[in-house]
Design the sequence.
């Protein structure tokens, strides 16, 4: 059995070498083009309303690709990161409401692993301003940390630190992994194994389910999570997340406020040493996954497709897989989900983004990774 974190998510395994072979056959509705190369890309995101694709590299570099010219530049002003294992520079995100503004002067959000006292680390999210007049003249200015994972702990795994904005643009949601410490996911008073809901300035949003407890509890939206690496909104405005299980039991969950998703008390996988974890059950008091995978897919990211280039994918969740080396296509059916297809590649896949024209962009994982553009045949 493929181990979702032991093999697929350590950050130590580079993508397999070799040139991508063009996908063929009726099951593959796209053609694949290699566009650029990056070193350990972790996240890719278009600045809304532009052709500019921003790429984070785990060791601490931000790149920008002008997808019209193919030119790549380095963005100055990246933060210092705690690089190693699964840690380093993480997500990059832009406010959808600023789509009509010039790129220069836009707000940019970044997540990364930050070193603490002793041998501790934790995820953080920072907010800055983009000073960008072209691919060769781009910088992040005034970057300051607006949120910190609490507490910082030892180890270099399960930061999660994916970023999503609510459909109305008012709130910031952050996936906060349990840092391989397990039990804090079930405890309050910390933000490990949680999804937090914040105002755009990083302060706790009003109406969060544990607000009356005060402190960091006021940030918490949901808990009982393990290692969330994909988070996005469906067409109905509902939040979904996909997370790594242990040996088996990757989960896709419909996220509801105040819901507990069971980790580490319940999982459809087992511990790496073979010890049993009770499976999810309808009467166990926890929120149930909409879909789970054993063997794992080891998701690297997730998006809900909204474009017109691939009509069959509209409204579906698309997940690039690390261990599975595939894009996993999932249809949403009410509160449940069903895997529709799996498009296999020759390399581990880390990140995914939808282009302005509806094309899909996918970043391979590891050193010497390729950025791929998928377009309709």
Sequence:
């Amino acid at each position: 059995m493929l181990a979702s974190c032991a093999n697929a998510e350590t950050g130590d395994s580079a993508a397999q070498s070799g040139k991508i072979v063009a996908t063929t056959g009726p099951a593959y509705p796209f053609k694949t083009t290699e566009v650029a190369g990056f070193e350990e890309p972790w996240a890719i995101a278009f600045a809304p309303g532009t052709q500019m694709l921003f790429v984070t590299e785990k060791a601490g570099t931000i790149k920008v690709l002008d997808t019209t010219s193919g030119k790549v530049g380095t963005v100055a002003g990246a933060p210092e990161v705690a690089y190693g294992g699964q840690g380093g520079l993480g997500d990059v995100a832009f406010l959808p409401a600023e789509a009509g503004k010039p790129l220069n002067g836009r707000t940019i959000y970044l997540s990364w692993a930050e070193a603490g006292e002793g041998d501790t680390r934790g995820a953080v999210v920072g907010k800055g301003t983009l000073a960008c007049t072209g691919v060769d003249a781009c910088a992040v200015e005034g970057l300051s940390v607006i949120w910190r994972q609490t507490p910082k702990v030892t180890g270099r795994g399960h930061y999660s630190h994916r970023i999503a904005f609510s459909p109305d643009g008012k709130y910031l949601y952050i996936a906060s992994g349990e840092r391989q410490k397990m039990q804090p996911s079930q405890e309050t008073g910390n933000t490990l194994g949680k999804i937090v809901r914040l105002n755009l300035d990083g302060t706790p949003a009003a109406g969060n389910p544990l607000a009356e407890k005060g402190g960091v509890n006021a940030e918490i939206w949901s808990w009982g999570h393990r290692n969330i690496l994909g988070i996005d909104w469906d067409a109905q405005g509902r939040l979904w997340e996909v997370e790594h299980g242990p040996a088996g039991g990757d989960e896709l969950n419909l996220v509801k406020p105040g819901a507990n998703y069971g980790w580490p008390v319940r999982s459809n996988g087992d511990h790496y040493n073979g010890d049993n974890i009770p499976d999810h059950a309808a009467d166990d008091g926890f929120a149930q996954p909409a879909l789970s995978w054993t063997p794992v897919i080891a998701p690297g990211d997730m998006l809900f497709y909204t474009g017109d280039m691939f009509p069959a994918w509209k409204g579906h969740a698309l997940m690039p897989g690390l261990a599975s080396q595939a894009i996993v296509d999932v249809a949403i059916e009410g509160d449940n989900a069903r895997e529709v297809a799996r498009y296999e590649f020759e390399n581990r896949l880390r990140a995914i983004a939808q282009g302005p024209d509806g094309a899909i962009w996918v970043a391979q994982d590891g050193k010497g990774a390729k950025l791929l553009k998928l377009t309709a045949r």
Summary: The chain is about 0% helix and 40% strand. Residues 189 and 217 are 6 Å apart (CA to CA). Residues 30-376 form a domain with the Neuraminidase fold (CATH 2.120.10.30). The chain has a mean pLDDT of 93.
